[in-house]
Write a structure and sequence with these properties.
By secondary structure, the protein is α+β, with helices and mostly antiparallel strands. Among the domains are: 95 residues, Helix Hairpins (Orthogonal Bundle), CATH 1.10.287; 132 residues, 2-Layer Sandwich (Heat Shock Protein 90), CATH 3.30.565.10. 58% of the residues lie in helices and 17% in strands.
């Protein structure tokens, strides 16, 4: 909820910028309305005061001429006589307590507007029943502007909503879900973008299906001669040769299975089976996969402090096997040292440093003279699946690769 609220007003997001613009527009519109209303009220009050002075001046001149108060005139001006001659002493004192000239005082008391006239000719208390006019036209204009601003905001937000839906579909696609549909029947630029991406997804799905079909066909065709080879090896009389042929064909079978796993990792077309395993058990299984005649001669493993990791056994074993195989294949002595300590495992061998940056080797089919350029790419992909850091170092003539738990990662 907190992240959602932040995204609504984050100036780094498109929706946040739109919200900011309309919020500022709303505030400025309200401030403008308040300023104009205050100005209108001041003008209306000024007119009321001018009217009152004109009325009092007329009453004085009329009294001087006729010796009486023109009640009809006051009635026409919506002014009521409250007291004549100063009889209502309580109200008079209350008006005088509000201050002002002793001859002419205007006071607002309990929502009534009283005018006290005190001169040598007559004493009057009048109530002005007129009130400043409410700015109806200004209020209607303000409400209309607010409604227009709100409708414009809703229209723009609804116009960009497909963009956020497209973002969610792209995230699903990046996570390996190819069964997405982001087609749009609208006619704006966002719809064009969504339809173009949908076409690209369809083409990618077609290419992936073609690749998977080809790989499965190749692996299926390879399984048949391997099976026939194993049957023919049974006819060999010498046990030593028979065992060697069995090992070769078993190795070929494992290579095909690994090739299938590599295809799944590279295409992210797999379901992980995460369970707790000790790292030493994973290393032992990886060494067994190599089918070395004398593993203890070429591999030196030290377990300082073993640790348990939530892992897909087959995938992580494949990654560790690749690191061991690479260290032995490209090392000067064709030997490798393995160290398991606390939350990390390191693989070290004597050899030349990598010619390029390590990030280049994390790409599939990078420039490699000794293989397809998939080894470190596969290890990096499997490390990411297990939320592990994959680190490369070169120290004292030794190539070192490290798999370690991330800080705060799952145990």
């Amino acid at each position: 909820m907190k992240n959602g609220a932040l995204s609504l007003f984050s100036i780094n997001s498109l929706r946040g910028k739109i919200n900011l613009i309309f919020s500022i527009s709303f505030i400025l519109l309200v401030m403008l309305f308040m300023v104009l209303r205050q100005s209108s009220e001041r003008y209306a009050m000024h007119e009321l005061e001018m009217q009152e002075r004109a009325n009092i001046h007329y009453l004085y001149l009329y009294y001087m001429k006729y010796g009486t108060i023109d009640r009809d005139y006051l009635l026409s001006q919506n002014i009521r006589i409250v007291d004549i001659g100063g009889k209502n002493l309580r109200l008079r004192k209350e008006i005088e307590s509000r201050g002002g000239s002793s001859r002419f005082i205007v006071a607002n008391i309990r929502l009534h507007r009283y005018i006290l006239i005190n001169n040598d000719r007559f004493k009057l208390i009048l109530e002005n029943l007129n009130r400043p006019k409410f700015p109806i036209e200004l209020t209607i204009s303000f409400l209309g502007a607010m409604l227009l601003l709100l409708l414009l905001y809703i229209w723009i937000i609804r116009s960009i909503n497909p963009l956020f839906e497209l973002k969610r579909e792209i995230i699903k696609f990046s996570e390996g879900n190819l069964d997405i549909d982001c087609k749009s029947d609208k006619r704006d630029e966002i719809a064009d973008l969504a339809n173009a991406f949908d076409d690209a997804v369809d083409k990618i799905k077609t290419l992936l299906r073609s690749r998977q079909l080809l790989l499965r066909a190749v692996m299926h065709e390879l399984k048949t001669p391997i099976a026939k080879g194993r049957l023919l090896s049974e006819m060999i009389g010498e046990d030593c040769k028979k065992e060697r042929f069995h090992t070769i064909f078993e190795r070929l079978n494992l290579l095909i299975d690994e090739f299938a796993k590599v295809e799944q990792v590279s295409s992210r077309n797999f379901d992980t089976d995460m369970r707790p395993y000790k790292m030493s058990d994973i290393v032992d299984a990886s060494i067994d996969m190599l089918m070395l005649e004398e593993p203890k001669r070429d591999i030196h493993m030290v377990v300082k402090r073993d640790f348990t990791l939530q892992a897909d056994f087959d995938l992580l074993t494949l990654a560790v096997k690749n690191l061991i195989d690479n260290g032995m294949k490209y090392g000067k002595e064709h030997k490798i040292d393995i160290l398991i300590d606390t939350d990390s495992i390191s693989f070290a061998n004597k050899g030349e440093p990598l010619k390029g940056e390590i990030e280049e080797y994390f790409l599939p089919f990078h420039d490699s003279q000794n293989g397809l350029g998939l080894g470190l790419y596969i290890v990096k992909s499997i490390a990411d699946i297990h939320d592990l850091d994959f680190i490369y170092r070169y120290e004292n003539g030794r190539v070192i690769f490290i798999l370690s738990k991330k800080v705060g990662g799952a145990m």
